[in-house]
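Two folds, back to back.
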Amino acid sequence: MKNLIISACLIGCRTRYNGETSEIPELEELKKKYCLIPVCPEQLGGLATPRDPAEIRDGRVVSAKGRDVTAEFEKGAEEVLRLARLFDCDTAVLKERSPSCGYGRVYDGTFSGTLTDGSGLTAALLSGNGIRILGESRVGELL
């Protein structure tokens, strides 16, 4: 059975910024085909849950209250990469639009719900190291 990195919020862990979950309906099917390695880059980077929402603005990750949390996001991304290598993962299913996990489209830093092209820090680091990234809307490609 192959190992698969997955955002912890997608398997029902209350790791999102607001302490909520984003559990995916395909979870049981995924568990039949993969050994899931749950990660939360924000928590691995030292941020608490719940925490202020954050978005990427001018290459930095900034909370809604103006706190620069880039260092925590970078640390979390490095820890996820370390786990992906440790468990020999070549694919990750990550939470879409997140400043950590979003791939291809993320919120634009205005906290207005506007999306822009780009990727979160973890998604970008994993992708740059040869790991395939899928958002939760594309999990069916693995089933």
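---
second:
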Amino acid sequence: MLCAALLWSGLLVALPGDGPPSSQDLKTYDALRRKAGRDAPAQVKLALWCEAHGLDAQRLRHLAQAVLTDPGNATARGLLGQIHFEGRWESLDRVGERFGTDEQRSARLAEYNRRRDELEEKEVRLGRLCRRIERLNQATLGNARLVEGLEKVRGTKRHELARAHANLGIWCRANGLEGEALAHITTAIHFDPSREASWRHLGYVKRHGR
């Protein structure tokens, strides 16, 4: 009950609008409110209608109701200016403060950026290699052995990049950078869809060969 009371008191503050709502808007709102369900999606939908018609206090009230009904509702949380950060829903300002004061996290992010920059350099080199191979393919049509050798080189480089992205993703996960981990492990699969370890890190299992 205390959490609910704090949520209501923190959210039921009217934001400055463009002007007072019309009597017709208030009548329409009253009718919509009586018909709306108590579930989170219905409350979010009503909150969006209120926002479009300048009913700021009512908008916050319905977003608060949506969060009380479904604390994990990402749409309601987002409309309240909150994001899911390290297992909790927090305002963007609060997350910014935590980023600024968390020296350990700042150090981890600096190390991540260094590792990512090194990986991007490898991707740039692979891009250059692929373009060179494409030009050689066009210039050596009919030389199957050479084309096969070039394709083998390209495949090897893609496997190396897949492994590098997967390793960086595992490092990110071990250091609390879950979003970055997801991005790099997904990229690893893009470069090498046959990497079963990467699929497992994303929570997938092989079934019927897929």
